């Protein structure tokens, strides 16, 4: 038995002298219990890596989400090798005294649901180079997450209805409303909101119906639709059940009701100042007078629904010949159907040097429209 230790200490396991390094703990201070062991005894039980016997990863077979901690996380994965590598990396623990640690992980796909992770580690302990290899099997457990289960079960908390005022929403309006809803939900999902989803979208004869996951989402989408397309939002709550704490649970129907007139409509207000080409249905109805070219805005109390009748739409206009300029208030144009010369009001947006002008023919007569788009 050697007795040449500078510290005068001996390995309590084999009795060999142990040379304590200069930075070892001082008497009375905290110390590592393994520090008193000789190298042979220390490395006899040493483990560079602490690894689990197996790892199980819960994944959603519908959306590709992964269950981590106590929640589902959207990653959209179909190949779970990267997920297995990440889960394995997080579950491994390196000995606290190891320095200059290097490591690598090599996945081996055993079958569709099993990935064997070969992990090789190297480092230094007590100035001695050590290596260790561990193999951790990772099992992929496929199930259905709560969100996908709700969608499959036709769950919804709110209904959004797109409707028009005294009319049916146009195909373009319906398409845009659906696009707004899908974009909003996609943005919420990308932010990690797994409560955000659309259960169903159905086109009806009177508009569009959407079943949505929460009342908050229904209100937000309805607000965004009328912000862009005009109109107003109304709410109609319905008591559907009580939760486990006895609180009442309501399902809310949000109606995004679009204004009666859309940009491009030509309407007659019957106020003696001539028809109006509608340019905006946000806030108060706005447009341009086709008799004078003056701007028009409905009174506050009329809002987007002034008393008027629809004469047609800009898309129904036709190019016709500008025959003559009679004076500051009148021009002659050809009727696009009968080719008769007709005298009509001259709005100030008419270019008197033009050879043709766009006109809309209605039961109220011919109306010269501006060249610019609404």
Strand content: 35-45%
The profile of the biggest β sheet is: 5 strands, mixed
User: What count of structural domains?
Assistant: 4
> If strands are numbered along the chain, what order do they take across the biggest sheet?
12-13-11-15-14
From the spread of the alpha carbons, the general shape counts as elongated
Determine the fraction of residues in helical runs and give it as a percent range: 10-25%
Low-confidence stretches: 1-7, 22-30
Structural class: alpha+beta
Structure summary, number of beta strands? 25
What's the gyration radius in Å? Answer: 38 Å
Task: Give the number of helices.
Answer: 5
Mean pLDDT: 83
Q: State the order of secondary-structure elements, H for helix, E for strand.
A: EEHEEEEHEEEEHEHEEHEEEEEEEEEEEE
**Alpha carbon gap, first and last residue:** 101 Å
């Amino acid at each position: 038995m050697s007795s040449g230790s500078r510290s005068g200490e001996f390995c309590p396991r084999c009795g060999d002298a142990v040379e304590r390094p200069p930075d070892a703990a001082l008497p009375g201070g905290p110390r590592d219990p393994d520090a008193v062991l000789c190298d042979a005894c220390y490395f006899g039980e040493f483990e560079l890596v602490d690894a689990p016997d197996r790892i199980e990863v819960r994944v959603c077979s519908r959306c590709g989400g992964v269950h981590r901690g106590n929640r589902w996380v959207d990653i959209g994965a179909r190949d779970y090798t990267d997920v297995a590598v990440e889960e394995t990396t997080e579950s491994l623990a390196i000995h606290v005294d190891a320095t200059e640690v290097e490591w690598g992980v090599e996945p081996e796909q055993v079958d569709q649901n099993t990935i064997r992770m070969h992990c090789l580690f190297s480092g230094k302990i007590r100035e001695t180079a050590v290596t260790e290899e561990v193999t951790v099997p990772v099992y992929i457990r496929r199930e259905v997450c709560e969100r996908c289960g709700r969608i499959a079960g036709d769950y919804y908390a709110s209904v959004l209805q797109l409707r028009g005022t005294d009319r049916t929403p146009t195909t373009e309006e319906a398409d845009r409303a659906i696009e707004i809803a899908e974009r909003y939900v996609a943005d919420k999902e990308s932010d990690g909101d797994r409560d955000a989803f659309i259960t169903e979208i159905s086109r009806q004869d009177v508009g569009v119906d959407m079943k949505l996951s929460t009342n908050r989402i229904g209100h937000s989408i309805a607000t965004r639709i009328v912000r862009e397309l005009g109109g107003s939002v109304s709410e109609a709550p319905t008591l559907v059940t009580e939760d486990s704490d006895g609180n009442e649970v309501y399902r809310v129907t949000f109606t995004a009701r679009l204004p009666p007139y859309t940009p491009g409509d030509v309407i007659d207000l019957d106020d003696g100042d001539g028809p109006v080409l509608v340019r905006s249905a946000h806030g108060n109805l706005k447009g341009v007078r086709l008799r004078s070219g003056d701007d028009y805005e409905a009174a506050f109390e009329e809002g987007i629904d002034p008393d008027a009748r629809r004469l047609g739409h800009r898309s129904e206009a036709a190019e016709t010949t500008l025959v003559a300029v009679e004076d500051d208030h009148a021009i002659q144009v050809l009727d696009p159907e009968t080719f008769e010369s007709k005298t009509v009001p001259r709005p100030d947006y008419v270019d008197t040097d033009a050879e043709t002008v766009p006109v809309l023919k209605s039961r109220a007569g011919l109306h010269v429209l501006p060249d610019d788009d609404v």
